[in-house]
Design goal:
Rossmann fold; nine-stranded mixed beta sheet; two-stranded antiparallel ribbon; binds S-adenosylmethionine
Length: 291
């Protein structure tokens, strides 16, 4: 925790708002999206999801993926507690919702669904198809149930370890074409469609994403490995968002390595997130901005 506060203090010293940002792309993003304080109807759906989770006192058996992707424990936890501890905050959820809209995201991928708060933030009110991956089957079941209650039919939930599901990516389209009841690419992961969880999943699946939100395994090696693997799933205008880049010295190291990667052009450090853009037309530049 001490590390976290020190990192935050360093961030405050280095960060700015839109002033001094000379890149028109980043200036527009900051002023029209980060600092957009209008209230959008989609926020109500995001709030409804959170409220329903906080009132949900069921105990579920959670499979913990904390140590790398090795499952090390299984534990009973209250759904409401998971939402409080693992879920995205309301402020970040609203920002994620605006980012999907502002960047005109049509296909998004999330690593780490948990109980679905980040997924709903992307999907609500936006013309986007969201694919989300969760390793814990019980947690995923709760998320799918909430997506159904909210009538969100633009989400596809894949249950499995990130490593396995990402490896299977090339096969997703093929699986959809096969029209199978459950999509079981290599029997290590299964798909749940929120609308019809036990029938064919008719959501379009793509191998390329406009936005990739990486919010699962907050460890250096895992983060770098997802980054490398998913580079083949981005295009010039994609954004990758890494959660908790200042959580530990290791995560900060991972963030520095990502920034230096030759295909990375623009990065924005908002303290809680690191945004990565690949825009070939732009000079390499790193921003530190209070969102
Ligand atoms: C911080 S939570 C995600 C929060 C969510 N994105 C949100 O915005 O509310 C991280 C989730 O990632 C899952 N996870 C972590 N490592 C994983 C792995 N290697 N494979 C599959 N799931 C994993 C955990 O089970 C947990 O539910």
């Amino acid at each position: 925790m001490f590390y976290f506060f020190k990192a935050y203090f360093r961030f405050l010293l280095r960060s700015t708002n839109q002033h001094g940002v000379h890149s028109p792309f980043v200036f527009g993003l900051v002023t029209k999206c980060f600092y957009d304080h209008k209230k959008y109807p989609a926020y109500q759906k995001i709030q409804k999801h959170r409220k329903s989770l906080l009132q949900d006192k069921r105990n579920i058996r959670v499979t913990d993926f904390g140590a790398g992707s090795r499952v090390f424990s299984s534990d009973e936890r209250k759904v409401s507690e998971i939402a409080k501890n693992a879920g995205i905050t309301s402020k970040r959820a609203r920002l994620l919702n605006r980012l999907v809209n502002y960047l005109n995201v049509k296909n998004a991928l999330e690593l780490g669904t948990s109980v679905g708060l980040g997924t709903t933030a992307m999907a609500a009110g936006n013309k986007v198809q969201v694919t989300t991956i969760e390793g814990c089957p019980e947690t995923a079941k709760v998320a799918a149930e909430k997506f159904r209650e909210l009538g969100l039919d633009n989400i596809q939930l894949k249950v499995g370890k990130f490593e396995d599901v990402i490896e299977d990516r090339g096969q997703w389209t093929e699986d959809r074409e096969k029209n199978s009841k459950f999509l079981i690419p290599n029997s290590k992961s299964v798909s749940i469609s929120p609308k019809q969880p036990t029938t064919d999943n008719s959501q379009p699946i793509t191998a390329h994403y406009d936005l990739i939100y990486i919010d699962g395994n907050h460890q250096k090696e895992a983060t770098l490995s997802y980054f490398e693997k998913l580079l083949s799933a981005v295009h010039n205008d994609s954004v990758m968002i890494f959660d908790d880049i200042h959580w530990s010295a290791e995560m900060e190291e991972a963030w520095e390595i990502i920034k230096e990667h030759p295909s990375v052009k623009v990065t924005i450090d908002t303290f809680f997130w690191g945004l990565v853009f690949f825009r070939r037309e732009q000079e390499k530049e790193h921003f530190v901005i209070r969102a």
